[in-house]
Amino acid sequence: MGNLNMARAYYGVDAMVDQDLNAKVLEVTFGPDMGRFTEYSPEGYNEIFGNFFFNEEKGLTRIV
């Protein structure tokens, strides 16, 4: 299949927190709408690109 070392993807995850602070995943999308993200974070695409290809952690919060 070829060398996929540079293959990357991003996903959208919608979640909510209940009254006991338990997170509930509502939806995972494979092609999230980035309009609102870039509206509030104009450098958003640059941060994603840096995270994916240059191992930068600007604007990144590790959850795992």
Describe the protein.
The protein is of the alpha+beta class. The chain contains two helices and two strands; from the N terminus they run ββαα. The protein has a two-stranded antiparallel sheet with strand order 1-2. The protein starts with 11 loop residues before the first strand and ends in a 10-residue tail after the last helix.
Give descriptors for this structure:
64 residues; alpha+beta; two-stranded antiparallel ribbon
Model regions low in confidence, pLDDT < 50 over at least 5 residues: none
Instruction: Supply the helix-strand structural class.
Output: alpha+beta
| Helical run tally | 2
Q: Total number of β-strand segments?
A: 2
**Helix percentage:** 25-40%
Order of adjacent strands in the largest pleated sheet:
1-2
Compute the CA-based radius of gyration.
14 Å
SSE sequence, one letter per element = EEHH
